[in-house]
Amino acid sequence: MSTVYATRLLxxxxxxxASAILLVAGIACGGAGEPAAESGDSGGSAATTGTxxxxxxxxxxxxxxxxxAPAATEAPAMxxxxxxxxxxxxxxxxxxxxxxxSKYGQGENNLWQRLxxxxxxxxxxxxxxxxxxxxxxxxxxxxxxxxxxAWEFTIRPGIQFHNDEELDVHDVDxxxxxxxxxxxxxxxxxxxxxxxxxxxxxxxxxFKFTFKEPLAFFGAAVSEVDNTAIGTVLSVDYWKSLPLGQxxxxxxxxxxxxxxxxxxENPNPGLPxxxxxxxxxxxxxxxxxxxxxxxxxxxRPYPFRQISLRVVPExxxxxxxxxxxxxxxxxxxxxxxxxxxxxxxxxxYAPESVHIWINANGCNRATDxxxxxxxxxxxxxxxxxxxxIDKTKIQALYxxxxxxxxxxxxxxxxxxxxxxxxxxxxxxxxPDKARALLAEAGYPDGAxxxxxxxxxxxxxxxxxAPLTVELSTLICQGWKTELGIECEVNVGEEVxxxxxxxxxxxxxxxxxRTNENTYDGGRRMLxxxxxxxxxxxxxxxxxxxxxxxxxxxxTQEERHQAYYEALRIIHDKHYDFTPGFLNQPYGVSDRVSGxxxxxxxxxxxxxxxxxISQ
Length: 614
Known about the structure:
With 614 residues, the protein is of the alpha+beta class. The protein has helices spanning 12-22, 111-116, 169-178, 187-193, 218-221, 236-240, 254-258, 260-265, 315-323, 337-342, 379-387, 391-397, 431-440, 468-483, 494-502, 522-529, 540-551, 556-573; strands at residues 4-5, 85-92, 122-126, 129-133, 139-145, 150-155, 196-203, 206-211, 275-281, 285-290, 304-311, 329-331, 346-359, 404-405, 455-459, 487-491, 510-516, 581-588, 592-594, 611-612. The strands form four sheets. Strands 1, 2, 9, 10, 11, 12, 13, 14, 15, 16, 17 and 18 form a twelve-stranded mixed sheet that branches. Helix 11 runs antiparallel to helix 13 and helix 17 (540-551) packs antiparallel against helix 18 (556-573). The two termini are 27 Å apart. Residues 11-80 have low confidence and may be disordered.
């Protein structure tokens, strides 16, 4: 196999941004950079001490999967192998920084990692629900031990890296110590690292993480149902065989860090996933070839020998390529669904992919940095702003109920996630109640609101979902019409807006953005509300419920109830809110006769379920 790699140095700008972010206590997940946790936060196995269980995320009383669980059931049968296609092509709008090491790799759309990697804790889709599955990950067993303070993983034998070396506990030890660090670029990784008090090899095939306090969400945080690379593993022997390169600031140990450059030039031998990296042209294309010794080859029989992952930012170009038959799946959006269908194409929706997140940090403060009153310090104001938003207009903006659902709880609670119940959804449109609440707070018909100054709404265009400017304008119009609030939409640049928000420079001002939904919101709840310096608002009442949920290591039903109670008080306090979530549309070619993507995945998921028609 010929391997061609574009040389890419670990960018100093990335490390500088990462260092700046670490100074702020609460950023979020994924490429959207959410403060509290990278997407898919949390709640893994609900195992009681000394037992092995796996948790489901969809229903309140989800089935727990024992360690000897059957293989995942969503894959097509192996008999289709003779009809495998040579090349399968997908196109996405954007993806992360395309770094394969989890210490510095970042991106909301991390499909590039998914094709080359395996996670410590596996997952599967069972009866429509996501579950943590010991049959599909690096660990074939996990236990919560030491009175709930530690997670111990048993490493599965027989997993091979692409250089044919076998993955073992020493590889897990290497990544756990080097990559899961406060030096990491991903804020979710940093947040986890800050909770760890010890990490150690405890036997020939066992590894243990110990925490300051029980973290029941850790299993999901290192699983493939989450949307981070925290749980991925690299070959320590391959890494240490590489030459030293540039010095990386704020990275230890120095010699290990200096090998990162050489690793990124050719990561393939050190990866254990379903595909090998054949060539890599950054921000253009990664070409993968199926790894026939992948340990889940039988259960996940990807029906293509090679897959081309192409970054094509222009939506019109992706649509044209689909219509010309040059691509098999494209990332679409609601603005082109009709165009694709009118041309005879098909749409597949991935449920609960991203949500609209209306948030402000500092609402627990009475005044901003200039000493001026913060409007959202008053709960009645926060509730009034939400009641004044007509969610049905937002649904219509995004193309109706197939694309947009008025449901969910700003990414920490999703219908397919842990702890969610129907009473936690968005507040209904009720302008009379909104006006009454605002008048109670001292601003009848908006008089005196924000001391007569224009109330800004911030947003940016780009990743996550289209129409964020139009959406923000719609929200602003509602606040003007129903509440008499003079507002304006400020369209900024994503990184700059995040920086000023994280620094508290726009405290009390709302940001309208998207973020991925998550299976378990424990990590996000912890970082948003339950720690000093929390990204949204530190609140001791919320913290008590969040910490109780994080410490719950009982049955799945008990964990669901504990999470529900935490979500309930967060909903009642209403520091941030959502009108609902988007189901991600994908355009598919004629030869894709079937595909069953996972819920809660802001990337092309479960590609092994693709069925090819010849």
